[in-house]
Specification:
This protein is an alpha+beta fold. The chain has three helices and eight strands, in the order ββααββββββα. The strands form three sheets. A three-stranded antiparallel β-sheet has the order 1-2-3, covered by helices on one side. A hairpin with a 5-residue loop joins β4 and β5. The N and C termini lie far apart (37 Å). 24% of the residues are buried.
Length: 141
């Protein structure tokens, strides 16, 4: 099955949404509700804020489900020079940087910017987090 990828563009940037990667942290719509509103179709209103505000909010997406690129360029503008790893309390293991990941079937996936890895064991998208830790009440203590 092919992965769903949605694109929302203005004259400056394109916001890219990959719903399968989303861990439902809700940072997008809590941080910029004029742009990200899950009660509307489409849920991304690219005209709801300046390109710079949208970029700043998209850069806070912990899973990488949201990313952006300039309209006249094909690559994300964020280039990691150092890989960082953070264990989020009662949540995923976050890895910041560009990665090549092999899943259990040996399929190689290229991840950019940030990647959320499952720590609770309940994800249906292993090795990646799908937000299942919330309903499973995962506690890492």
């Amino acid at each position: 099955m092919e992965e769903i990828v949605k694109r929302y563009s203005n004259q400056n940037i394109t916001v890219i949404w990959k719903p399968k990667m989303c861990i439902h942290s809700q940072k997008c719509f809590h941080g910029l509700a004029n742009v990200f509103d899950p009660t509307k179709k489409p849920w991304v209103n690219i005209a709801g804020a300046s390109s710079q505000k949208i970029i700043e909010q998209v850069n806070q997406c912990p899973s990488g489900a949201l990313s952006w690129e300039y309209v006249n360029q094909s690559k994300n503008q964020t280039v990691a020079t150092l890989t960082e790893v953070h264990a989020l309390p009662n949540g995923p293991l976050m890895v910041f940087g560009d990665l090549h990941v092999k899943d259990a079937q040996g399929k190689e996936i290229v991840k950019q910017k940030s990647t959320a890895f499952c720590r609770c064991g309940y994800s249906s998208n292993k090795p990646f987090c799908d937000g299942s830790h919330k309903t499973a009440n995962f506690n890492d203590h």
